[in-house]
Amino acid sequence: MNPVRNLSNRERLSKKERVGMKGISNGAKKQPIIAVIGGNKCSNKVEQLAHKIGKIVAKVGAILVCGGLGGVMEASCKGAKSEKGLTIGILPSQEKTSANSFVDIALPTGLGYSRNVLVVKSADIVIAIDGKYGTLSEIAYALHFKKPTFGIGTWNIKGVIKIASLIDLENRIRKIIKNL
After folding, report:
1. How many helices (H) and strands (E) does the chain have?
2. Is the pTM of this model over 0.70?
3. DSSP-based three-state secondary structure for 71
4. CA-angle at 110, arms to 78 and 160, nearest 5°
5. Packing angle of the helix pair 44-59, 72-82 (nearest 10 deg)
6. Angle at the Cα of 160 from the Cα atoms of 62 and 142, rounded to 5 degrees
7. Which CA distances in Å does 44 have to 50, 61, 126, 158, 160?
């Protein structure tokens, strides 16, 4: 009987290779991810706000994740891109082409609103802007998963941190990222 055949693939790897299986082994810090959630349709005022928040996400060195469609999602992606940020759209459809033009990485799911849990779970921080029931479900997931959740002009729910200003938001985000 060959003893090598009885070893699992993991046991056949060198110690250095096994360490790499546990995660990043070179001491590098993972880039933070911030979800920006909000309606597929929004007013010009909300669109401008989402654009500014997208810029903040990129400015603090985070990746922006969203539902990848229009409205708040598109405006925040556009803001992030204007600051050379990276954007991810977790799409409800099965088609990458449904992503807005400012999404760098389009992830089609075919899950409809069920994809909202993926948007939230992938993030370290969640920012809710305006929105209706889809945004409400994302806020619920964010609070359930104990994600720091900020709200601007959105649902008034215990646990959602209301933001007084964009400077306040940026400072709070930087503080959280520092402790990730």
Report:
1. 7, 7
2. yes
3. coil
4. 55
5. 40
6. 60
7. 10, 26, 22, 28, 24
